[in-house]
Each structure stands twice: as structure tokens, then as C-alpha cells.
Amino acid sequence: MFNLNCPLLRPVMVLEDDPNVQMRIEKLLQAFGYEQQDFLFAQSISVAKQYSQHVDVQLALVDLGLPDGNGIEFIDYLRLEQQKTDVPIMVISAWNTTEMIYQALSAGATGYVLKERDDLEIMFALRSILTGGAIIDPSIAKEILNKFVGTETPHLDLKRRSVLSNRETEILKLIASGASSKEISAQLAIAKYTVDVHIKNIYQKLEVNSRTKAIHVAQNIGLLR
Questions:
Q1: Which of 32, 89, 160, 165 makes a 20 to 30 Å CA pair with 3?
Q2: What is the pLDDT of residues 72-129, one digit of tens each?
Q3: Do residue 108 and residue 194 come from a single domain?
Q4: Could you give the 3-state DSSP secondary structure of residue 160?
Q5: Is 2 part of any domain?
Q6: Residue 111: closest CA among 101, 98, 123
Q7: With a threshold of 0.90, does the pTM exceed it?
Q8: Quick one: 185 and 133 in the same domain?
Q9: In this structure, is residue 35 part of a structural domain?
Q10: Using alpha carbons only, what angle is made at residue 75 by residues 4 and 154, rounded to the nearest 5 degrees?
Q11: pLDDT tens for residues 146-194?
């Protein structure tokens, strides 16, 4: 079993209408050290929005096929209306169409994993999210990367390449390697707070709101080649 010792983001919003899947997610997160009071379970988008108006959600696990719509609506709500640009959002869904996954990532999802994966694979994805990484289900990652190439912000030019400082470019490359803020802090011998400030500056300069988008934009303009 891999190391389960990682930062716990509380509370966790679990937007999922299947009680069995809710129980599965709860059990997997409890293995990391989460307790029952750390969870907010919602079976519809409307209920999830109500909860998030009163509770400062720090991690969201979102299904897409819900009774009152598509979970992407809730991702949009967190990112745009609630301005939660740094809150990790992982989609756990049975939907595996390229277009749907692309829409979820474009809306600001930090990661996407299929429900069909076994418990260990989903736990690995959860750990990646909790440690500041971004993850896309391996079976669809290649297709998604191909989809993103040339379809991010139109006509990304060389000006975007020059706006990042050397330190920001260095941190962006470490992000692309899957390193968390804590790991970047240790590797560069700088405070984690300083790393987080650099990451926010990177987001602002590249006009993105997630690590996944920052990586794809950087690939498009040649920063990660």
C-alpha cells in the first residue's frame, strides 16, 4: 500500500446521487484519516449549492450524471460564483466520453477518474489531489491531451511565454511533473507560502484557474517542451 500520510482538506463535498458510491468514497477517504463529520453528502446540484453557501468547502468530489443536471454546473458554480479557484475538484464519474471529460476540465476540474477503477486506483487519484497534484484517468489521458492541443485560449502567442519569471517557469515545470506545493517547497528550499504565491501568479499570467489548465497552456506555448 502506498503512503496515506498527506494533508487532509476539510470539509469534503461529495456530490453523488448513488448511496453505494457515497459509501465507497467515504470508506476510501476514511483510510486517509477523514472522519464522518468531515463529509458533506449531496445527491443533487441544488443541495450541493445550498451546502456550499454555508460551509467553506475545501475539497469537492463530483459526479456528472445527477437528477437535476450535469455536475459540471456545480464545478462552474464553485469556480465562478464562489471564486474557489484553489479548491481541488475531482470528478468521479462513469462517463468516459472525450467531450464530457474535456468540458469538465475546461470548467476547472483538477482531475478526472472513472468509477470503474478499483479502490487502490481511486485512492491513488485521491492522494494526488490531496497533495496538490492533478490527475486524469490513464485510459483517457492521451485523448484529452490531444484534444487540448490547439484548443485552449485562441492564438496563444509568444508574449504569454515571456510573462513568466525564471522562478515561475521552474515551478511550473515541477507542477507538470506532478509535484505538490509541499514537494516543490522542499526541492527549491523556499517556503510553501512562497510557492503558493508563485502558483497564483502563474495562474493569473496564463489566465487559467487550475494546475491542469496551466500545464496545457504551457505546453501550447512551448514552456514545457
A1: 89
A2: 999 999 998 898 988 999 999 998 887 788 888 888 999 999 999 889 889 989 998 9
A3: no
A4: helix
A5: no
A6: 101
A7: no
A8: no
A9: yes
A10: 110
A11: 655 544 444 444 445 557 888 998 999 898 888 888 899 999 999 988 9
